[in-house]
Amino acid sequence: MRSQIFINLPVKDLEKSFNFYTKMGFTNNPQFSDDSAKCMIFSEEIFVMLLTHDRFKTFATKPIADVSMTTAVLLSISVESLERVNEIADNAVAAGGNEPVEPKDHGFMQQRTIEDLDGHIWEVFYMDMTKFPVQ
Question: Helices 82-94 & 14-24, crossing angle to 10 degrees?
Answer without folding.
Answer: 150
